[in-house]
Amino acid sequence: MIGDITSADEIYIVCGYTDLRKSIDGLCSVVQDKLHMDPSRRALYMFCGRRCDRIKLLLWEPDGFVLLYKRLSAQQGHYRWPRKKEEARSLTWREFDWLTSGLDIDQPKAIKATGF
After folding, report:
1. Could you tell me the pTM of the whole model?
2. Contact at 8 Å (CB) between 36 and 2?
3. Is residue 2 part of a domain?
4. Of the candidates 81, 90, 92, 89, which has an alpha carbon nearest to the alpha carbon of residue 56?
5. Is residue 60 in a domain?
6. Does residue 80 form part of some domain?
7. 28-62 core/surface letters (b: 16 or more CB in 10 A; e: else)
8. Could you give the CA distance from residue 13 to residue 2 in angstroms, rounded to a whole number?
9. How many domains does the chain have?
10. What tens-digit pLDDT sequence spans the chain (116 residues)?
């Protein structure tokens, strides 16, 4: 299925600003050169520009790359994107949901998931 993000084993958010004029090849080079990762692994890479109202997601599928783009409407506000010096940060699906819902991914009062 095209663009099925649930097929990703890992989620990485590229902290800081990314030039969203980059296409698939440009974002792949960011993953390779800046993050020293293989863009063709089963991972979802997330990028955000300076305005924080749009994101791009890069996903490898067995037959090629998928580039997803989302722009929030003016009434929806902006994404709470981490701007720390870290180059990439691994996210859980819960943190992914928080981020795409407009919440901060650092929720200190959230209930921690426990393993059984």
Report:
1. 0.83
2. no
3. no
4. 81
5. yes
6. yes
7. bebbeeeeebebeeebbbbbbbeeebebbbbbbee
8. 21
9. 1
10. 677 888 899 999 998 889 999 999 999 999 999 889 999 999 999 999 888 889 999 999 999 999 999 888 777 778 888 777 667 889 999 988 888 887 888 766 665 655 54
